[in-house]
Amino acid sequence: MSIEQLIESVEVSAGERITELKENAYRQSVEIRKAAEGKDEAIRKKHLDAVRKNVDVERNKLIAKVKDETRMQFTRTKDEVYKKAFFEAQKILSSTRSRTDYEQNFRKMLQEVVLELEGEDILLHIDKRDETLCKKLLSESRLNCEVVTDITTAGGLNASTKDGKFIVFNTIESRFEKAKDLFKPEIFSMLYGGPSERGV
Question: Which of 15, 50, 59, 172 has the most crowded Cβ, counting Cβ within 10 A?
Fold first, then answer.
């Protein structure tokens, strides 16, 4: 084989080898791109799932927060309405003494405290404005109780043993406070519907 033929053969062989190397390099680059694209998609999906999860978590937190705030606001509103209702009722009760049935009511309240402290030496605590009425009712009932005008009240009276060990509160105000707690569930039920809390 002549030198020219040898050179030509080497050149052809080299060309084939170069073509083969180029084809292999192209195939590898295509495979690398495909693999990278698959990884990119997996990474994108992973990040998207994480974002969606965070969005769901934040949305649920926000919904829970809004619900809590709404519940608190509703509770505050109910309490304000309740307080206002009792404030108006208290204003009405402040005129109890001027009602025509006050004497009858005072007599009943007097009987209640005397019965509560039956057998004891009783000291009646009244408003100065009820002194005449109280003494009149004591006389009619033939009750022997000491009377002191040491309280200011819209009506009613308190009673205690003379040694101060026991005391019974029976003024309009004390009865009003008991009624507030006792009837709060019923009032809320009337205002906002639903079953009475006392029956729960």
Answer: 172
